[in-house]
From TrEMBL, chains A, B, C, D:
Transmembrane segments: none
Organism for this UniProt entry: Aureobasidium pullulans
Protein name: NAD(P)-binding protein
InterPro entries according to UniProt: NAD(P)-bd_dom_sf, SDR_fam
Pfam families noted in UniProt: adh_short
Length: 245, 245, 245, 245
C-alpha cells in the first residue's frame, strides 16, 4: 500500500460510501461528513476488512473546519494525497425564484461551490506532492460530483443548479491550472437517480436499470484515478441505461 | 410613453450607461449603482435630454438594499416594469486557487449570482404585471450580462467564472419558469473587451473593431426587448469582429 | 437603396418568405428554391409592393446549380451581397438507425451542410466585397437557419441532426475565418414549431404563443444584419414563450 | 473467452492498434482498414500472442464493403458482438472554405459520419444480441472516436469539423435509441496530439506528457466497455496533462 491517502468529502449512504470502499482497497481513507452517523459504521467496516479509515466530522462550507479536517488526515496518513473526492451537496429546494429565501438560495452554493473551493485549497498541496512523487502509481486526482443540474438549469431548480454550475466552473479552472503540474481534475455529471435507501420508493415500477448503482459510480471514479498523465479525462457523464436525456 | 419603466443594475461608464440611454428613449429609467458617481451625471443627461431618470445607490448583494431600490423605483414610476437589466459584477481577481482568500473567491458570486437573484426576485412581479398588461408594446424583459467566463472557466479565473456560470444557471431557470407567464429572460455572453475609459490602453495597437462598442450591446439588448412572445431569444453572444474565439 | 442585394436559399411558405419580405424592404432580393411554386407569387408580391425580387430554381445540393443561381443574381443585382441567408432543409425522416436507407440518412447532410457549403462558397466573395465597401450601411451577413436538432440529437432523428450539427460546425468555422475580414456570420437555433400552413393542425389546442411566428424570425435576422462590426452575435436561439426546453 | 467478438474500424498505427490489442485480451477481434498494411502485422502479432484476430480490407464509406466485412467477422466469430469501435477518419484538409473542392469538403463526412452510420447499422444487431445474452459479462458497447473538432470548429477546419460534429450527433441519437435496449454507446473527444510514428516530430521539445498515449486511450475505451448497465458514460474527453484547452 502506498503511503498516500484518499480523502472523501460528503460521505453518506450512497456515492460517498461506495467511493470510500473502492478507494480503501488501495489507500487509507479519510471520510468527511457533517454528521458522524454518516461514517461511523463505514469506518468500522473498512478497518475490520483490512483497510484503514478515519472519520472526521466536518462542515465543508466552513474554512476552519475543512482546514482542521485535512490537517487531521495529514497527521494520521502523511502529506501525500492520492485522491480527493468532493461529493457534498447542500440542502435541496424545488421552489420558485419568488419563494426561495436568500438563505435557501445561497445554501447550495455554500456547499457545492464554496465547500468545493475550500476542500480544493486544502487538498491541492497534498495532491501536488503525490503527483510529483516519482514512486506514485497514479497521479494525484481531484474529483467533483456534479449532477444533471450542472449543465441544465430547470424551472424551480435555481438554488441547486447555480451551486452545481459554479462547481463545474471551479473544476474546470482548477483542471486548467493544475493539470500542467500533474494533478488530474475530473468532474462527473451524475444524470439520474442513484439507488440508495432514500430513493427506494422512486421509480419502483421500473427495472433496476432505471437507477444508477453507487458502486458503479465508484468504479468510474477509480478508473479516472488510474488514468495516466498522458490521457486525462476531465468530464464524464454517468446515467442508467433507462434514463431519458 | 408607456407607464412602465426600465431598471438597470450595475450602471457604470460602459454597458450600463449605454443601456440606460437606449432604454431611456422609450421608458423612464431607474439606475442602480453602489457609488452615486456612477449615475449622477448620467441621470442629469437623460433628464435634460427629454427622458426621465432616477439614480439609486444600491448594494445588489444586500437583500434590503435591493428591495428598497426597487420600491423607490416603483413609487416613482409605477408597478409595471418593461425591462430589468442586471449588469453588475463583483470584484475581479486573477489568482491561483491556492492564493485566493475565501472573501475574494466568494465576492464574484455575491454580486453576479446572489445579486442577480435578489434583483430578479424584486423585479419579476413588476415584469409579470407588464407582460400581462394587454396594452404593453413589448413583453417584460429580464436581461443578464454574462461574459466569456460564463461558459469557459480558465486557470486563475475561478472566482469570476464561478459567479458567472452560476448567474447563467439562474437566468436559465428563471427563463424556464417565467417565459410561460410571458416574461422574456435573456442572457448575453459578452466575449471581448468593451471599449470604455478603463480599457483605453488595452489592444491599443489594434483597430477599433478589436473592442466591443457599449452602445452596440445596448442596441442588442433593445432588440431582445422588442422580440415578440412568439420568438424569444434566451441567449446571445456578442464579440467584436477581430476577437479570437 | 444600396446597390447590394440579399439572397435567400430555401424560400418556402414559412421562414424563407418572411425573411425575403423583410430584407426586400432594404435590398433587391434573389430567392432560391428548387420548386418555383415556392417563390413565384412571392416574387410578384415583392415587385408589386415597391421592392425588387427575382426567383431562381436551384438545387442547393448541386454545385453547378448553386453557382449558376448566384451568377444570375450577380448579373441582375451587382457583385455586392449585403446578406445571404441559408434556410434550406433536406427531406426529413423520423426513423430508427436500423431502418434508414443510406440515401435517406445522407439526404439531410446533402442539403443542410453540403448545400450550405456550396452556397457559402459562392456568396462569400460578394459578402466580402460588400463588407469592404465603405459606403455599406451594415456588414455583409451570412445567416444559417438551424434547429433544436443542431444541438440535441434525439432518438430516431439521426439523419436530420447529423446534417444540422454539421451545418453548425460549418457556420462556426466560416465565422472564425471571415469575421476578421468583416463578414458577420450567424447561426440561429430555431427551437419550436413554426406557425406555417403545414403545421396548422399541430398544437392546435394551445394558444398562438406555442408556435414561432415566421415574421418574428425574420425580424431577428434583420437585427443580426444591422449589428455593427464591433458587436457581432454568432448564435441565437429562438423559441415561443410556451416551448418546453 | 466469451463467444462474442470485438470489431474495430479504422485500424492504423495509433489508437486503432492499441484498441485492437486491448480488446484482443478478452475477445477475438476483427480489424478493418482500407489498406491491409495497416493490420497485417498486427493480426499476426495478436494471433501469435494467444489472441485471435482477422483483418478485413474495408472501405467504411461504402455500404457494400461494410456489410461484407461485418458478415465475414460474423461467419468467423459468431453473431454476438461485445464491442464495436469506430475509429476511422477521412482525408484531412486545412483550407479556406473558398479553396476546398466539393470532394475535399465532403470527404470527411463520408468517412466520419456516413461510415460511422454504415458501421453502426451492421454492428448494432450483433451488439443487441450480445446485450440480451444473460451470460454476457459486459453490455454490448459501441464507441466512436471523436476529436477536438467534434465540439469546436476552427477556421480552415470546416471539412474535418463538419464530419466530426455530425458523427457526434449520430452517436447521441444512437445512444438515446439503443441504450434502453442495453447497448452502451459512447463518444470520446480526443483533445490533443496522439503519440504515433506520424507525429514523432510534433511537439518534440516538450516532455512526453504533451502527447496522448494511444494505449491509454485503449484503456479508457476498455473501461467504458466494462461499465454496468446502471452507469453508462456517454461522453468522455481525453487530453494529455500539458494540453491547453
Amino acid at each position: 500500500m502506498s503511503p498516500a491517502f484518499a480523502i472523501i468529502a460528503g460521505v453518506g449512504p450512497g456515492t460517498g460510501a461506495s467511493v470510500a470502499r473502492r478507494f480503501a482497497l488501495s489507500y487509507p481513507v479519510a471520510l468527511l461528513a457533517r454528521n458522524p452517523d454518516n461514517y461511523t459504521s463505514l469506518v468500522d467496516e473498512i478497518n475490520k476488512s483490512g483497510g484503514k479509515a478515519i472519520g472526521i466530522s466536518t462542515d465543508v462550507s466552513d474554512a476552519g473546519s475543512v482546514k482542521k479536517a485535512v490537517e487531521e488526515a495529514k497527521e494520521k496518513f502523511g502529506d501525500k494525497c492520492a485522491a480527493a473526492v468532493f461529493n457534498a451537496s447542500g440542502p435541496f429546494f424545488r421552489k420558485s425564484v419568488l419563494e426561495l429565501t436568500e438563505r435557501e438560495f445561497v445554501g447550495s452554493y455554500e456547499v457545492s461551490c464554496k465547500g468545493a473551493f475550500l476542500f480544493s485549497q486544502q487538498t491541492l498541496p497534498l495532491l501536488l506532492a503525490h503527483s510529483k512523487d516519482s514512486s506514485a502509481k497514479h497521479p494525484g486526482t481531484l474529483i467533483f460530483t456534479g449532477a444533471t443540474a450542472s449543465v441544465k438549469s430547470n424551472a424551480l431548480m435555481s438554488s441547486f443548479s447555480t451551486g452545481k454550475y459554479a462547481m463545474r466552473a471551479l473544476s474546470q479552472s482548477i483542471a486548467r491550472e493544475f493539470a500542467p503540474q500533474g494533478v488530474h481534475v475530473a468532474h462527473a455529471i451524475i444524470d439520474g437517480v442513484i439507488d440508495i435507501p432514500r430513493t427506494k420508493e422512486w421509480l419502483k415500477d421500473m427495472p433496476p436499470e432505471a437507477k444508477i448503482e453507487a458502486d458503479a459510480i465508484a468504479e468510474a471514479y477509480w478508473n479516472l484515478h488510474t488514468q495516466s498523465k498522458r490521457a486525462f479525462t476531465n468530464e464524464i457523464d454517468i446515467r442508467p441505461m433507462l434514463e431519458k436525456w
